[in-house]
Amino acid sequence: MPQTKQDQDVVGVILDDHRAMEDLFRRMRSVEADRSAALKEFSALLIAHGEAEEAEVYPALKRFRNIDDDEVEHGSEEHDEGNKALLALLEVEDVGSEEWDERLEDLVEAVSHHVDEEERTILNGARENVPDERRAELGVAFLKERERLLASDCGSLENVRRVAHR
After folding, report:
1. Is there a contact between 92 and 100 (Cβ–Cβ < 8 Å)?
2. Which residue in 18, 16, 24, 30 sits closest to 43, CA to CA?
3. Which of 9, 45, 115, 133 is most buried as measured by Cβ atoms within 10 A of its Cβ?
4. Under 8 Å between Cβ of 160 and 85
5. Sequence-separated (6 or more) residues with CB below 8 Å from residue 146
6. DSSP state of 120
7. Is 90 exposed, middle or buried (0-12, 13-18, 19+ CB in 10 A)?
């Protein structure tokens, strides 16, 4: 079934990723789940999502007068914090160890804080100030870049290390 413009609205697409990240957090916390697989999936999604936002969405939103540029810049800074917390977790070899659980909670805190702020400030600003057609175009561009990154193994330890140390 082809996606409609509403399905590709950049706000909706980003929100879908946020909900997927929350689900992956639940899986990574569950002793009954394959925590390693959930981390691998989360790592790829977080890197692809953040990089695609910064490449395709954030620069475009800065052009709109009623979207706070400082909030967009702050969003990029929070991506860096999340990437560093992800790297710290990926570097723990013993999945489910006390250290792993502590670093997981650091990651959950960093990403959840960013998601909350982004949804309240940047995404609400986009809903109110960016025309539907432009949000659909941004959604398509975001998804294309995100998919390109996901296909490139962007969640690997080596790539996360590179992204986190820029």
Report:
1. yes
2. 24
3. 9
4. no
5. 17, 48, 49, 52
6. I
7. buried
The CA distance from 153 to 40, in Å, is 10
Q: Residue 73: how many CB atoms within 10 A of its CB?
A: 12
Q: How far is CA 6 from CA 66, 119, 147, in A?
A: 22, 18, 19
Q: How many CB atoms lie within 10 A of CB 65?
A: 7
Query: What are 91-143's pLDDT values in tens digits?
Result: 999 999 999 999 999 999 999 999 999 999 889 989 999 999 999 999 999 99
CA 13 – CA 100 distance, rounded (Å)? 30
pTM (two decimals): 0.93
